[in-house]
Specification:
InterPro entries: ICL/PEPM, Pyrv/PenolPyrv_kinase-like_dom, Pyrv_kinase-like_dom_sf. This protein is an alpha/beta fold. The chain has helices at about 10-15, 25-35, 45-55, 75-85, 100-115, 135-145, 155-165, 185-190, 200-215, 230-249, and strands at about 1-5, 5, 20-25, 60-65, 90-95, 120, 150, 170-175, 195. The protein has a 9-stranded parallel β-sheet with strand order 1-9-8-7-6-5-4-3-2. Strand 2 (about 5), helix 1 and strand 3 (about 20-25) form a beta-alpha-beta unit.
Length: about 250
């Protein structure tokens, strides 16, 4: 499954309108939108605010929660409980190469606090390192209760296939790389979820700057853009869904 990552109401609902049944969030965009650094445990409230906006949507919502915005497993469990109550179907928790036992404790606490929340446990062994210790960390996270595991930065087909075999049925999530295997190839290798991470957000920013620069230079903008009416319809759709959710309760 390809999991695109949104950063606000419009981006999430536009993706859903194009047939994506599950949408993730991207912590980089959440942080960048308010001028804060990503991965610094600084955007807990912003993440909850986005989940409150997207939770009632017509898609399964997976929330990128960095490392849970703290080291205390009980605090991370409370965050997970709140996200699940807001309608999130899953949470992505990254270890940032901190102690594996601490991350495992967070996972166990989240499972106990929000049993219905899908826990995707991310290790940064390839993202921030050379891949060493990947198997040991993932084993610890699965034993703690993770439903799936995420290894961003892993692109070598042979290593991906070997990791899939070692996981013995636990779903593997990898990050799409323009220079790595295609989504169909990753599926053939046994990967169950392919995330786009911050790619869509970064592409959108790049397109905005390129468009402004082109117009300033007297050229017409390239590419396509939704119409004003199409964007407006996304807002109406969201309100209608929110009202439907509220009335059904």
């Amino acid at each position: 499954m390809l999991l695109p990552n949104a950063w606000d109401h419009a981006s999430a609902h536009a993706l859903a309108a194009h047939g994506f049944r599950a949408v993730g969030t991207t912590s980089l965009a959440v942080a960048a939108a308010v001028g804060l650094p990503d991965g610094a445990a600084a955007t807990r409230e912003e993440t909850l605010r986005l989940a409150r906006t997207l939770g009632p949507g017509p898609f399964l919502l997976s929330v990128d929660a960095e490392g849970g915005f703290g080291d205390d497993p009980d605090d991370v469990a409370e965050l997970a409980r709140e996200l699940h109550a807001l309608g999130a179907a899953g949470i992505n928790l990254e270890d940032g190469l901190g102690p594996a036992d601490r991350h495992a404790a967070k996972i166990a606490a989240v499972r106990a606090a929000a049993p219905g929340l899908f826990v995707n446990a991310r290790t940064d062994t390839y993202w921030l390192g050379d891949g060493e210790d990947t198997t040991r960390r993932l084993d610890a996270y699965v034993r703690a209760g993770a439903h799936g595991v995420f290894v961003p930065g892993l692109t070598d087909p042979r290593k991906i296939a070997a990791l899939v075999r070692g996981l013995d049925g636990v779903p593997l999530n990898v990050l799409h790389s323009p220079t790595g295997p295609s989504v169909p190839r990753l599926a053939d290798l046994g990967v169950r979820r392919v995330s786009l991470g911050s790619l869509l957000y970064r592409r959108a920013l790049g397109a905005a700057v390129e468009t402004a620069a082109a117009i300033r230079a007297g050229r017409g903008p390239e590419g396509t853009a939704p119409s004003y009416e199409e964007i407006q319809s996304l807002g109406r759709r969201g309100r209608d869904e929110g009202e439907g959710t509220a009335s059904s309760g």
